[in-house]
Automatic annotation (TrEMBL), chains A, B:
TM segment ranges: 66-88, 109-131, 183-202, 214-238, 250-270, 296-318, 339-358
UniProt keywords, alphabetically: CBS domain, Chloride, Chloride channel, Ion channel, Ion transport, Membrane, Repeat, Transmembrane, Transmembrane helix, Transport
Gene3D superfamilies assigned: CBS-domain (3.10.580.10), Clc chloride channel (1.10.3080.10)
Pfam families: Voltage_CLC
Bilayer topology annotation: Multi-pass membrane protein
Organism: Rhodinocichla rosea
Compartmental location: Membrane
A GO term for molecular function: voltage-gated chloride channel activity
UniProt feature, compositional bias: Low complexity: 671-682
Protein name: CLCN2 protein
Residue ranges, annotated region (Disordered): 663-683, 841-864
Top-level taxon: Eukaryota
Length: 864, 864
């Protein structure tokens, strides 16, 4: 009992606080200046006033979107740059350590292996302890959040810290991990924190719709400041996180991502890394003749092969996760020693890349960034054997092996990195898979390019001019194609242009990316969707490429017809039955079982609360009491309102609450009182009711209330209330009897929270349209109605089943194409008119009560 | 009775037809081969079977999206290339004519002026005669079409032909007109025609949702193949035409646009215009140091100035149109001589650009394409005076004037072209404004760039290396910024990269475009929105940049509360009253005036039809007849089915209609008939029913029907029916009496077409969310309900008013920012519970008929 009443007080206090804030919100300016002026009176007063006006102006401006976006861009650019700096330092430290110990191979090996293992283990442990939500990419989670699902603890400061530090360590280890996915998450957290911070200045940031818009912009910022690719960032984030994109958010993403990318690159200039603002992985391919038309088949081959490769990567990644989960022995062992798996994986991978060991066959000493720079290199490596004019200078040396040629090195690199990346991305640290895949793709492209260059040493062009083949261009194409295939996006093409600073290969890149997407999408879900499935996040699969059946499956084919519902004139017993027979989270509220007119939907919890209020011991005791003192309730009811207030204002002792409830039902059937009888379950409602009660009275007659409190001696009455149940108990059989009796009463819905306009569909809506509406509005379920009558329900589950069923060609009955012929004609209008006629007939009966009788509605009251 | 049975038979026939077609759809293969095999028996049979299988495979594949998209891309690329070729030929012809007459300036002038005037006049006349819908850009119309509005004749073959030929002539004239906007329209028409053509092979192309998706892809193709800019095309078309973009359409646009751009450029290679596939306006800026950080302020200045310039352009364009419309004298004169205005405008513009005349100060002899090529030139013009190393070669000569310097030429060019373009785009020919604006922007950028180059002749960079300023880069930035400002898009940046083939200036371009957008959007609507407003197309304005009030205005603030409605148990008199008192196109159908439970919505036309059926002379005559022959109707009903057919097949005399209708009401109250009594107004339904009736019967039992007709002697019966009203007329007072009597009858809704699930909103929905939902679902109106009860209505009109009101800060009561705090708490739940309580109380009364009486519902039946 204490607990419950404490809760009541809690909501009251919250409401009161909110009320105060509201008052403050209405008039924040008049107060602060006067306050401040008081103690600065006389001295530089005008100065202060001026400063205050500036401050006020700033506060007003803080509400603007662009201030938020600039701040977000700035913060994220700083974070990105600082992280890059830290990662570079970490990698340099490893190189330095490895280089310094070149006298002893064993020591070298120890240093090479221990360093990443320690970093990864620390990263895994740190995130595990601080915020396990920081693990992984974050894009799948952002996708679900942007769909309207609330994931707990995903956008908090703790997760932010865990993700930033964990990611820095993970990337600093030199493992094949990416920065992009986590950056989307980091930017979103940053936006959420920033909007919470800015909401201190004004109320604009409290709106949920606005927050979603800002999160969408933040995703763009995340990609944008990670690659200094504003356009690609916006497009990639749209493709990866949204199903439907509001074009009015477009400028937000562009603005923030551009600003962020700008600051990110300016920091590099400021740090003397670059002379001016240029692309991250600048290429220098020739502009006048970037590629020959006859090279296009080779680019198409890269695209198709990348499609298969991407699908294989997603499959491999999922299988590894599933294998780890399924093997119970391994699983149990790993659960105990959570840090063993990351350490083990790191150990294996770093052992294999050890440069004096196997690493020499796969350019093991190169970092991810160096690898990309070398792969996008302008020169042709393969020709080296022929006319020796080309030398492997600087970091390019890594690809040169005295006992093998560059083709073998590339093949080994691709094969090894492929499974390594798929394995490494399953480590429970903050990490993405975009960059490793990008590197593999680049290597594959390079391989094809080098092969082409070796095949056509003087280029393909038949004219007099000799245009040699540029393998670097192939690498660019391959990178875009493979990353596009893994993520199922086309915008990797744009990212590639922005990363390399050259757009001359636009057509090959687009062709390869589209082909890769076509192949990969028909084989596997995207990496992010795959993770969503593994993590069982609430999602809705996309409609695939050109599945026409979707236009011919209708809601009536997939909806659940046999649903439980609550009628307006049902009894508590019916509620109990409904609760026992279904697990639906939202129950439809219909007018009556006969008419089935949908009035709204009521949450399961609300129904439970209604039921528990009806059968609560408090009510039972009240009944008992009313028997003893049949007039007591009514006598007390007049004074109870004021008494109520008195206890609220005078003291916070929980004892008085016992008095408050028992008196309530006496007032329950008075319809004119605006805020009567709150149920025990819906605590927030009670708070509100009390609040409005309090406010109204306090406003009209505050002095009277206080006087009344003093007169009544609240605590004394409370004591009486608490002792009462102890004095007159009820026997168990009596209780059962009483409960049975209570269950037969009609339900009073006035206190329940009802969604007055649940989303409705018609039976003939196509699956395609239903999917659109569900993903547009972020629905969880929708009721199917026909002229106001409830006929069924569709939830995400049914929809998912239907889509996946039709994707695999089974599960759902697929209508023949021409069935849509009937869409707006015969069959539909037939069903409609029948339904309408029934309704109409019922109304006819209404007007002739002799035939049907007024009690006719009651027959079918019990829910099916 | 005839009428009813016709309809019954009609639906039966329709179902039958559908069933037959379904059967056909299920098993199309077994029939066709056998048919064909019959007459090819013996001879090369296996060959035929093989060919048939191929054909079947092709037909199956034709339904795939990608086939459609490839075809679309191919056709559009061909159209684009052919048109470019024709335009180039036209322009060359003009140049040749002008060049050939260089002996006589007057003749030269005549040739220079007459040629474009004739072309423009022909273009205006041709489109006017063939399809006036082809006039103008087409993007505003596509925007409305993609919002779900059906614009008549906009996607027909006639319009296609008119637009293609009209556009070619208009652009061939050398006027400052663009190709982009019309190309969006042309591609959409092409898609619509193609999908109609392909639907001959299968039923997939009949779906409306799919067509909209294809149209969206077509818009991307339009831009893509116009500029060979697939990515920019997709993004631009999204920004310009959509409010909400379905990401699943993304690949369609990319695929089709890429293919189209590819073919477009391959055609250029094939035609030996280019050596390989490159950008349309290729630039050769240096890659290593594209621009200095300290140049950024200059780029920002370009952006801001372009913003103002863009807004001015839109304003000027609108003012010209409005001026032409407002001046009645001009208007009347122009309406008579429709071709005078285009001719006059062309005359003025071409006179001013005449190269030996004023044109010498504004590079008048350059075509749009040449102008762009020169403006994007890599060299610096202004330095010419200093060290003379640079010579104006080839077309660059046009910018050189012996008596003035390049700055003056550029300023004159910008000023003249500005008003010329604004004026020229109001000519009623197919034309866009993108390209002219793009050129002006490039010139403005060049001007700033040349100024910068003159100011810092040795570049700004403080290090040892000298990097000179590249004015061509400024031109690129200016072009993107001004075109972005006019169209309110950010994707012009991407278009610019794809057009020039260089992405090195990405940050300056992005900064300038965003600033230009920020300025322009706060001053004026986009050019397309401006045209939408001028043309009064049904549209919904965008929510502006960061207007927070939108989150605080709610539906209850803007909805129409005093709406007319139809109750289920109303009388025909009420329908009449409703029709007289409102002009709403959709009337809500509620259960009763007391409960106000929304059941559906009914179209105004349907209500009218119901009313006119009830008061039709046919029914009046029937009543009369029933008095005379009370049993006649029932006797006739048995044979009427065949009789009906007989009249349809034998003759088309209108007399039979009189026979068909009168018998209906006798059967009106039979509740089990599924589809009875069609209203007189819905003629198309009857038509369809009759047609399918005829077809179905002809297919199933043609001989029997013919026989039956002969047996029955249809014409005789028809004659009887026709003579009947003449024999027994009704006096006018009798008619009035009869009508009054009829109006008091209860309405029978069973024949009306009712939308069973109109879209519903709740009172507390914010304006922001309402806007989202309206634009997402393309709604026209929505009912506002509260627990099933109708409380108001919001239509596009109210929404538009509210948005525009809050944009200008008046009209709508704006809530204080913190009002959203109440969103899900006190006030809302209070109102809800009160409403629920009313409903509940009503039900309580239901169960205690002694208190309220069963007739209680009838009191408030008449609509308010």
């Amino acid at each position: 009992m204490y607990g419950r009443y404490t809760q009541d007080l809690g909501t009251f206090a919250k409401d009161e606080a909110a009320r105060l804030r509201l008052q403050e919100g209405d008039t924040p300016q008049p107060r602060r200046p006067s306050e401040l002026l008081e103690y600065t009176q006389g001295r530089c007063g005008p100065c202060r006033v001026c400063a205050l006006q500036c401050q006020r102006f700033l506060i007003a401006k803080v509400g603007e979107d662009w201030v938020f976006l600039i701040l977000l861009g700035l913060v994220m650019a700083l974070v990105s740059w600082a992280m890059d700096f830290a990662i570079a330092t970490c990698l340099q430290a490893q190189k330095w350590m490895y280089g310094g110990l070149d006298t002893n191979v064993l020591l070298q090996y120890m240093a090479w292996v221990t360093y990443p293992t320690v970093l990864i283990t620390f990263s895994a442990g740190f995130t595990q302890i601080l915020a396990p939500q920081a693990v992984g990419s974050g894009i799948p989670e952002m996708k679900t959040i942007l769909r309207g699902v609330v994931l707990k603890e995903y956008l908090t400061l703790k997760t932010f810290v865990a993700k930033v530090i964990g990611l820095t360590c993970a990337l600093g280890s030199g493992m094949p991990l990416g920065k992009e996915g986590p950056f989307v998450h980091i930017a979103s957290m940053c936006a959420a924190l920033l909007s919470r911070f800015l909401s201190l200045f004004g109320g604009f940031y409290e709106n949920e719709a606005r927050n979603i818009e800002m999160l969408a912009a933040a995703c763009a910022v995340g990609v944008g400041c990670c690659f200094a690719a504003p356009i690609g960032g916006v497009l990639f984030s749209i493709e990866v996180t949204s199903t439907f994109f509001a074009v009015r958010n477009y400028w937000r993403g562009f603005f923030a991502a551009t600003f962020s990318a700008f600051i990110f690159r300016v920091l590099a200039v400021w740090n003397k890394d670059e002379e001016t603002i240029t692309a991250l992985f600048k290429t220098r391919f020739r502009l006048d003749f970037p590629f020959d038309l006859q090279e296009l088949p080779a680019f198409a081959v890269i695209g198709i092969a990348s499609g298969f490769g991407g699908a294989l990567f997603v499959y491999l990644n999922r299988k590894i996760v599933q294998f780890m989960r399924r093997q119970k022995a391994i699983n149990r062992f790993l659960m105990k020693k959570r840090l063993l798996f990351p350490a083990l994986v790191t150990l294996i991978i770093s052992t294999l890349t050890f440069p004096p060991g196997f690493g020499q066959f796969m350019a093991g000493q190169l970092t991810q960034k160096d690898t990309l720079v070398t792969l996008f290199d302008n020169q042709t490596w393969a020709k080296q054997g022929i006319n020796d004019e080309f030398e492997y200078l600087g970091i390019l040396e890594a690809w040169l092996h005295p006992r093998s040629n560059v083709f073998i090195t590339l093949v080994v690199f691709i094969l090894m990195k492929f499974w390594m990346s798929a394995l490494a991305t399953t480590i429970p640290v903050p990490c993405g898979a975009f960059m490793p895949v990008f590197v593999i793709g680049a290597a594959f492209g390079r391989l094809v390019g080098e092969s082409m260059a070796a095949w056509f040493p003087d280029g393909i062009h038949t004219d007099s001019n000799i245009y040699r083949i540029v393998p670097g261009g192939y690498a660019v194409v391959g990178a875009a194609a493979l990353s596009g295939a893994v993520t199922h996006t086309v915008s990797t093409a744009v990212i590639v242009f922005e990363l390399t600073g050259q757009i001359s290969h636009i057509l090959p890149v687009m062709i390869a990316v589209i082909l890769a997407n076509a192949v990969a999408q028909s084989l596997q879900p995207s990496l992010y969707d795959s993770i969503i499935r593994i993590k069982k996040l609430p999602y809705l699969p996309e409609l695939g490429w050109g599945h026409h059946e979707k236009y011919n499956v209708r809601v009536e084919d997939i909806m659940v017809r046999d649903i439980r519902y609550v009628t307006l004139n049902c009894k508590y017993r019916d509620l109990q039955q409904v609760l026992h027979s279904t697990k639906m989270k939202n129950l439809p509220l219909v007018e009556s079982a006969e008419s089935m007119i949908l009035l709204g939907s009521i949450e399961r919890a609300q129904v439970g609360a209604l039921l528990s209020t009806q059968l609560s011991p408090q009510r039972r005791l009240l009944t008992l009491r009313q028997k003893v003192l049949p007039e007591d309730g009514h006598r007390l009811s007049d004074s109870s309102i004021r008494f109520q207030i008195s206890t609220e204002t005078s003291s916070g002792a929980p004892a008085r609450a016992a008095l408050r409830k028992p008196l309530k039902p006496a007032l329950k059937r008075v319809p004119s009182s605006p805020a009567d009888s709150p149920p025990a379950g819906s605590t927030d409602h009670t708070g509100i009711a009390l609040k409005s009660l309090f406010c109204a009275n306090a406003a009209t007659e505050p002095t009277e209330v206080r006087a009344c409190v003093r007169r009544m001696g609240g605590p004394l009455l409370a004591l009486v209330g608490r002792l009462y149940p102890l004095l007159c108990p009820m026997a168990p059989p009596q209780i059962l009897d009483w409960e049975e009796q209570q269950l037969d009463q009609l339900v009073d819905f006035s206190s329940a929270k009802i969604d007055p306009a649940p989303f409705q569909l018609v039976e003939h809506t196509s699956l395609h349209k239903t999917h659109t509406i569900f993903s547009l509005l972020g629905l969880d379920h929708a009721f199917v109605t026909s002229i106001g009558r409830l006929v069924g329900m569709v939830s995400l589950k049914e929809l998912r089943k239907a889509i996946e069923g039709s994707l695999t060609g089974k599960g759902v009955k697929v209508r023949p194409p021409l069935a849509s012929f009937r869409d707006s004609t015969a069959s539909s209008s037939e069903a409609d008119t029948t339904a309408l006629r029934q309704l109409w007939d019922r109304h006819q009966h209404h007007h002739m009560p002799r035939e049907a009788g007024p009690g006719g509605d009651e027959d079918d009251d019990t829910p099916k």
